[in-house]
Fold this protein.
Amino acid sequence: MSTSTELKHVVLFKFKEGTSDALIAELIEGYKALPGKIEVMKHFEYGADVSIEDLHQGYTHCFITTFPDAAGRDAYIPHQGHKEYVEVLFPHLDKILVFDFHPTVVK
Amino acid sequence: MSTSTELKHVVLFKFKEGTSDALIAELIEGYKALPGKIEVMKHFEYGADVSIEDLHQGYTHCFITTFPDAAGRDAYIPHQGHKEYVEVLFPHLDKILVFDFHPTVVK
């Protein structure tokens, strides 16, 4: 078991009611484009909720970015590419959750 | 870019106000013990929130289990080890979030 300096940045979205599937797809493409522009996003994965316990609290999409360390996250937040994406995205969100942690890998 | 049959099971906890650090540590140890008992938990990592955007919605701990597929998750939920842990854990939780997704790895 080891704790990493790596930082996992977990983001959950719930889009506003009435947001079209086409617009949701476009906004997801916008997030997916960021790792190509922002070197410090060293790993990026995402997906739609398929949980069966009804504890997802309304969130529908999850995105996990891995940064080499907290400094990577600190560089990402004010990055121009991130800021421009946030400006386009935020008007369409009902709610968002952002949780960062240094993973301790148990298994 | 590829979408996996793997299923990531993201769990967030907020403990009830007044839960002692010692009890929180004990409850986290209980979760950490599950991968040793439940074979289908093929990867397990966790950590406490270190986010700086104040969008963590009060959650303080994140746990990510990777199952080989949705059937693995389906076997985990009713597993005796999981059920016993939930019984001990739930009285101490203010809130919980569970989000499952099949990761599409972009980078």
Q: What stands out?
A: Residues 2-105 of chain A form a domain with the Alpha-Beta Plaits fold (CATH 3.30.70.100). Chain A touches chain B at residues 3, 7-10, 12, 32, 35-36, 41-53, 55-57, 59, 62, 64, 70, 73-74, 77, 95-107 (CB under 8 Å). The longest helix of chain A spans residues 21-37. Chain A has a mean pLDDT of 97.
